[in-house]
Amino acid sequence: MSAKPVAERRRSARFPLSASITLHHLPSQRDFPARSVDASQGGMLLYLPAAAPMAPGQQVQLYIPAHDRQELAELSERTLLARVVRVDRQRLPALGYVPVGIKFVDEIYP
To answer: pTM of the prediction?
Structure first.
């Protein structure tokens, strides 16, 4: 029996985006260094230190620095409110950091 392919659920395309980001974890009121992996109009994949207390459903704020991706221009140089949707702690031993998926919330601060 073959495995069914997973359907793509994203509404917009993802683009590589490697940038250093400071993520503010609202529940703990702490800042954590993060590295973006890719981004879309709706969300982003980040790598965070293992000590970051991320859990799905939590809200975070992040500032995305200027970059050269035209497709993501409106995300650049803004503070964004986002919700954690995925924390992949199983990959921690192999990677040394925690992959965290976030979804942008409608509120965008200029």
So the answer is: 0.78
